Amino acid sequence: MQDSIEQYMQTVGQQARQASSILAGASTQTKNNALSAVYTALENSESSILAANQTDMTKGRNNQLDSALLDRLELTPTRFKDMLQGLKDVIALVDPIGEITDLAYRPTGIQIGKMRVPLGVVGMIYESRPNVTLEAASLALKSGNAIILRGGSEAMESNRAIAEAVQHGLKVAGLPESCVQVINTTDRAAVGQLITLSEFVDVIVPRGGKGLIERITNEATIPVIKHLDGNCHVYVEAQADLHKALPIALNAKTHRYGVCNAMETLLVDEKIAEDFLPRVAELYAEKQVELRGDAATRQILGSTVQTATEEDWYEEYLGPVLAVKVVSGIEEAIQHINKYGSHHTDAIITENFSLARQFLTRVDSSSVMVNASTRFADGFEYGLGAEIGISTDKIHARGPVGLEGLTSQKWIVLGDGQIRH
Amino acid sequence: MQDSIEQYMQTVGQQARQASSILAGASTQTKNNALSAVYTALENSESSILAANQTDMTKGRNNQLDSALLDRLELTPTRFKDMLQGLKDVIALVDPIGEITDLAYRPTGIQIGKMRVPLGVVGMIYESRPNVTLEAASLALKSGNAIILRGGSEAMESNRAIAEAVQHGLKVAGLPESCVQVINTTDRAAVGQLITLSEFVDVIVPRGGKGLIERITNEATIPVIKHLDGNCHVYVEAQADLHKALPIALNAKTHRYGVCNAMETLLVDEKIAEDFLPRVAELYAEKQVELRGDAATRQILGSTVQTATEEDWYEEYLGPVLAVKVVSGIEEAIQHINKYGSHHTDAIITENFSLARQFLTRVDSSSVMVNASTRFADGFEYGLGAEIGISTDKIHARGPVGLEGLTSQKWIVLGDGQIRH
C-alpha cells in the first residue's frame, strides 16, 4: 500500500510539473477563459456539488464530527453563491505574471530587470472547508501555477465534485486537466509524500489546525508558507482617543471569535487604565467575554476577573476569552508583544505620532497597525483580491498571501553583445 | 561533547537573537559608524590578520590540502586591500531597512503599505575563503541582521582574526559584539545544531561545494538560500550576429573556469552550425578548451572531438571543458536547458525580437539573458553592490542575493479608528 501511494504521488507530481510548464506560458486570456469556463461548469453542477456535500455531511454526522467542523464542512446555496463570487473576483484581478520591473542600464551597457514568474507547482493541504478547493485552485491558475490539493477526508466527496467542475473548465479552455489535481486517497501517507516531493512541488501551503501545520513544517523538505498562531494584541496607549480605542477593542475581540486576526490580549497603559478598563469591561460583559487579568487589572476591575497565568499570555483562545494586562508604557508593550505574540497582527491605539512610529518600526509582526482593528489583516481588506493563506514566516511571503505570494521573479539581462572584462 | 556543543550553540543563538532586536532598530548612521569602525580596526590589524592566515596556510600545507583550496584560503596584501574596498562599497550602499512602499488607501479608509525589515538572524556556513567572513558580516550588519558564521576549519585562525576586528568595530560604535559571532569549534555537530536552531536563526546561507550544500538542505529545518549548481547555457540561434556570438561564447566559457556563471554547454542552431562551429572551435583550441559534442557537432568538427554522453549535458565542469550540441531550433534549445540545466543563468544570442522574447519568458532560470555573456550574473554586475550568494531557489530570493535578499517586508496599516463590519 505504502509503495502504491508513493507511486501514485510520483505520478501526480510528474503530471503537475508537466502541466505547470504549459500554464507558465499561458496568456492572461487563456487563464481567464479557463476560469470563466470553470465558473459556468460550477453553475451547471450546483445541485450535484451540494448533493455530494450532503453525502459528506451525513457521513460526518454518523462519525459524530463536532458541530464546528460540520459547520465548516457544509455548503449551503448561499455559501455556494459566495464561492462563485470569489471566483469572479479572481478573474477580475490583474495577472501578475510576466510583469517586468526595474529595467535599468548598468555602466557596462547591459540592461537588468526582473520578470515575475509562477512558482511552478503548489501543494495545498487543508482541512474541512470545501470552498478552499476552489479558492486555492483559482488563485493557482491565475498565477500560472499547477496545484495539488489534499483536503480533509471528511470533505472528500465535496472536493471531488468541485474539482470535477474545475477540470471540465480547464478542458474547455484547452489547458491540461492536471493543472488542478485532487489527491484521491485519505491515507495520511499521501501527505508525507506530498511534502517531500521536492522534484515536482515548489511550495506547500497548509491551512488548518496548529497540529496539522506543525507536523507539516517539521516533516517537509519543501518550503512551507504557513502561520501557526494568531495571538494578536491591541495596545491602548496613554494618549489614545478612547472614542477610537473602545470600538476597536470591542471589534478586534468580538467581531468573530474563531479567526486568526482576533485580539487575544489587550494591553492598557497604566496612565489611563482606571478610566478605560471599566468602560471596556462593560462592553465585554454585554458580549459575555471572559476576562483574565494581571494583578493591576484585577485591582481595577475587581477580583471577579480571573487571574491571568503565564500561559494566558501565549494563548490563542479563538473564543470569548481575553487576557488583559496593564503596562507601564510603550517599552513594556512592545517587549510583551515581541515575546508572547505570534508575529501575526498587532495594533497600537494612540494619537501620539512618535509613539505610533516607534510601534510600527519595532513590533516584529506580519501586520502592524495604528488606530485600526486587527480584524483588517486579511487579503480582501488589503486589496489583494483573495488570499491563499496568511504567513507569519519572514521568508518569501509575509502576512496575507495573494497572487503575488504564489510568484517569484527572475532576472533578465538584455545586451548588445557585451562580454565581461 | 555533543551536549556541550548543543549548549554552546543555544547560547550563540540566544545572543544572536538578542543582538538582532537591537540591530533591527539601529539607525543607518549607527550601522555605518560601526562598519567604518570595522574598516579602521581591519586596517590596524592587517599584519596580525595576515599572520593568522599564514598559520592557516602552514597548517593547510602540512595537511596536504590541494592547491586550489590553498589558493582560496590565502590572504595576500592585494586580496586584503580588495576586502577593504568591498567593505567601503557596502558602507556606500543605500540602507534598505525601513523603506515604506505601496502605501495606499482602501475603501474602508485605512491605509495599507509595506515596510522593509531585517530577517533577524542569518546563519552563514562556508568553506575556505576567509574574505567571506567580512563580506557576510558587513552585508548582514548593513541590512540590520545579526549573523552567526561557521567557516571552514582550515580557515579558523584567519576567520577568528577578522572577526576580532569586526567585533572591535561594533564595540566602538556601541553595538553588541554578538551581532557577529564566529563558531569557535571545528566539530561538525555545530553545523547540525546551527541549521536546526529554528527558535533563534531565520535563514541559512551556505556557500561551498555541492556536497556541503546538499547535506545542509536535507538536514535544515530553517529556510536555506542556496544554489547547488551552475550549469549555464549559451544558445546561438540561427539569426545570431556572429560578431556578438563568437566573443560571448568565448567569454562565457574562458573568462574564468571555476565560477558558477561560466557556460558549460553551448547550443548551436543547425542552420548556422557549419559556419559557426569551426570558427568558435578555433578560439577554444587557442585556449585549450576540450570540446565534447553530439553526433552533429562531431560531423562538422571531426572525430577528434570527444562524444558527449548523457551525463555531459548535466555536468558542471568548472574547468576548460565544454559540451556542444547542435539543436533544430528554439524549441529544442529551451527544452534542453529546462531539462538539463540548473536554473542558474542561460543566454540566447539572436537578432530576432520574437525569439528573444520567447526565450526570456520560457527559460526557467534565475537569470535569462539576450546577447550578453553569462558571466554577468553577479551581484556587482547587477548593481546590488555586493552579494551574499546566488540563489537558484524560487522562494524568497532568486539569482544574486544582495542586501534586499536579507530583508523581509511587514504590512503596516494606518487608521483613524476603523473597525471591521
TrEMBL record, chains A, B:
Reactions listed under catalytic activity: L-glutamate 5-semialdehyde + phosphate + NADP(+) = L-glutamyl 5-phosphate + NADPH + H(+)
**Pathway connected to this protein:** Amino-acid biosynthesis; L-proline biosynthesis; L-glutamate 5-semialdehyde from L-glutamate: step 2/2
Its predominant location is cytoplasm
Please give one Pfam family short name: Aldedh
Specify whether DNA-binding is a keyword of the entry: no
What's an example of a GO molecular-function annotation for this chain? Answer: glutamate-5-semialdehyde dehydrogenase activity
Function text: Catalyzes the NADPH-dependent reduction of L-glutamate 5-phosphate into L-glutamate 5-semialdehyde and phosphate. The product spontaneously undergoes cyclization to form 1-pyrroline-5-carboxylate.
Q: What is this protein called?
A: Gamma-glutamyl phosphate reductase
- Organism annotation: Acinetobacter chinensis
